[in-house]
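User: Hi! I have a protein structure encoded as tokens and I'd like to know what sequence might fold into it. I'm fairly new to this, so please keep things simple.
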């Protein structure tokens, strides 16, 4: 009995979410154990930029850009954002307001995801946008399936080493999707992610 209680307690701590919003009369339970990063090059480390500071127009694999990407290799005293990347050795800026779109990922069954990124401020220029929004889009139609609440960084974060987390969750039907990032001109981005959880236990819903 003691062993069973301990196992039950451990399982309760591992439960990631409970959702009945699937329209099929089921409650889905999922744990942290089966979450999988589905993005390619989520931390923008390939291709590797060799010059410290700004590398405007550098190649970034597995991402499409509406404006020229700037691969930042930060260093102590870098004046347009954090002196260190949140993950790895480099992060992304764009020349102007722009949209970044990841390569496609596909789910063959209904899947719960958490999606997000880290964002930081660049220069103290109030004429440039400091807002970011992230969305999951249908890869075939371009329709937004889920969008996180847009976030605007304050001037208190200008040129600091602070990385702010923006995230949301969604339940996605089978299909192909991309992560889309609308990035203001005065922001940097790093460590994007879409973490997929496959349902580990299905139970009939009583309502």
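Assistant: Happy to help. Inverse folding works backwards from shape to sequence: for each of the 207 positions I chose a residue that suits the local structure. Here it is:
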């Amino acid at each position: 009995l003691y062993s069973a209680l301990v196992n039950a307690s451990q399982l309760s701590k591992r439960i990631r979410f409970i959702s009945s919003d699937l329209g099929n009369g089921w409650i889905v339970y999922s744990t942290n154990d089966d979450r999988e990063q589905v993005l390619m090059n989520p931390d923008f480390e390939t291709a590797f930029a060799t010059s410290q500071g700004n590398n405007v127009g550098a190649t970034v694999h597995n991402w499409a850009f509406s404006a020229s990407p700037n691969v930042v290799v930060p260093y102590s005293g870098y004046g347009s954002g954090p002196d260190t990347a949140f993950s790895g050795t480099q992060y992304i800026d764009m020349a102007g307001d722009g949209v970044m779109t990841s390569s496609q990922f596909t789910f063959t069954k209904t899947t719960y995801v958490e999606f997000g990124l880290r964002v930081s401020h660049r220069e103290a220029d109030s004429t440039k946008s400091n807002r970011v929004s992230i969305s999951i889009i249908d890869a075939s139609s371009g329709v937004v399936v889920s969008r996180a609440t847009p976030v605007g960084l304050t001037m208190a974060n200008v040129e600091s080493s602070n990385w702010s987390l923006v995230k949301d969750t969604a339940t996605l039907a089978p299909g192909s999707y991309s992560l889309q990032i609308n990035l203001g001109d005065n922001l940097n981005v790093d460590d994007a992610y879409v973490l997929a959880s496959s349902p580990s236990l299905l139970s009939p819903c009583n309502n």
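A useful reference point when you look it over: The helical segments are 2-14. Feel free to ask if any position seems puzzling.
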